[in-house]
Amino acid sequence: MTLAQFINQNLDAILAEWEAFALTLQPAAETMTALALRSHAREILQAMARDIDAAQTDAQQDDKSKGWAPVLEGKETAAATHGALRHLVGFDLIQLTSEYRALRASVIKLWREHLSSQQDNVLTEMTRFNEAVDQALAESVVRYSNEVTRSRDTFLAILGHDLRSPLSAVSMTADYLATRGKVDASALPAVVRIKKSVLTMSLMIRDLLEYTRTRLGKSMPVTPIACDIGLICETAHDEVQAAHPEFVFDLEMRGDLRGQVDRGRLQQVLSNLLNNAVQHGASGSPITVRAEGHTASVVLEVINLGRPIPAAAMQVIFNPMVQLRDENSPLIDSHPTSLGLGLFIARDIVAAHGGELRVESSEAAGTVFTVELPRIFRGRLKE
After folding, report:
1. Pick from 183, 193, 357, 366: CA 20 to 30 A from residue 374's CA?
2. With DSSP H G I counted as helix, E B as strand and the rest as coil, what are the percentages for the chain, rounded to 5?
3. pTM, whole model, 2 decimals?
4. pLDDT tens-digit readout, 170-182
5. What does each C-alpha distance from 370 to 211, 282, 300 come to in angstroms?
6. What is the DSSP letter of 184?
7. How far is it, in rounded angstroms, from Cα 113 to Cα 130?
8. The pLDDT value given to residue 257
9. Distance CA 92, CA 14 (A)
10. 332 forms bridges with which residues in the sheet?
11. Cβ atoms 349, 268 nearer than 8 A
């Protein structure tokens, strides 16, 4: 039996091992179905078997060994689709690479059971060579990936910092023009639009700087003080209501809402959650902010009745740089007025307080983001 024949005749056994290994790649795989875990694995294996059986020139073999041929030819292969889907569900480059290393190990292990002892000795040496290549590859990919990430995040931090000065100049100019008598009344709406755009850009830059701070290894800075969390809810509610008068916002509060939190940071969390609700909420349906005091904690909820979050997107909803599409699709995409960092930063702030941010979404109950904060601060102090 040739190796290609063996692969085709033992697809189920190979795929079972693929699925078992993919399930270990946490946290992305935690909520994935068996079908999603095997994403295009059958097609990939079948393509490998066809390739083994196909005749090829020395030039074709050289190109393939470098992994260039499909890329240069612009082919949308099963392996390329698999890579795209793994990115969407939150796998990183190292986890994606490890899937193929595990696949090769599984096929060789199963194949060896069908060989004679003489053939097995030869394959043992080849296996050891493959293992050495895999180890070197893993070490290189990890270091390379870390360096690329650090360089990118450093660039983003510098960019966000440098953008604040010209934006501040635009903001001060808009404030000057808005002063009574500085511009004609017909031009005031344009000044208002400038001020709103400046606010949007300021929030984007703030989120960008927060994101790069955490990516560069620094914890989210918080300065907790004893305060009334209800007042923070009222402030966030009033601000977002003023910014979006076309929406209806309800505020419900009950119980003892005193606690130890960073006022500015918690207001940032609520603002991010409310702006997310505005973006995805149903037109004409109220957005509710609910605060309730419990014995050891204070629980805040932001509720909107828009389209439910697709199940396939739930596991990446808090990932940075992603947003849900407005279309009926489980895919994710950037929003034109957002960097897709609001939920990521909100979760980090809540975690810095020692709390938890979670989400539930259904057609009947809508989308509910829940912030549970300990009444007594148990998080990380400001660096």
Report:
1. 366
2. 60, 10, 30
3. 0.58
4. 888 888 887 766 7
5. 21, 19, 6
6. -
7. 18
8. 95
9. 23
10. 324
11. yes
